[in-house]
Amino acid sequence: MFDTGQKALLQRRLQSLTQRLSGISTELDGAHSQDWEELATEREGDEVLEGIGNAGLAEIRRIEAALARIEAGSYGVCVRCGDSIAADRLEVLPDTPFCSTCAAEEVTR
């Protein structure tokens, strides 16, 4: 079930996310205004950036897990039930560890 195109896609996405998170980190570490009103606005922006960063970190963990499954030879096999994950599902969600049935069950948990 492994497709080298999926591995390349995952690696490119991982690189893109890593660069984006580096930029977010730099922005969050930057100097803040001394003006209270501007500081409040900056803090709101920081909260948005932190949310984006957290979502990015979660995606990075999923991608790294998918790349590890590729290396282990278990990519495309559902980690929950052991059935094959449909190729069209992997095309849309290349980092998914679940077949569509198990994914639906995970959502309802």
UniProtKB/TrEMBL annotation:
Residues 7-70 form the DnaK suppressor protein-like N-terminal domain. InterPro entries: DksA-like_N, DnaK_N, Znf_DskA_TraR. The keyword Zinc applies. Pfam families: DksA-like_N (PF21173), zf-dskA_traR (PF01258). A zinc finger (dksA C4-type) spans 78-102. Keywords: Metal-binding, Zinc, Zinc-finger. Residues 73-105 form the Zinc finger DksA/TraR C4-type domain. This is TraR/DksA family transcriptional regulator. The lineage of its organism: Bacteria, Pseudomonadati, Pseudomonadota, Alphaproteobacteria, Rhodobacterales.
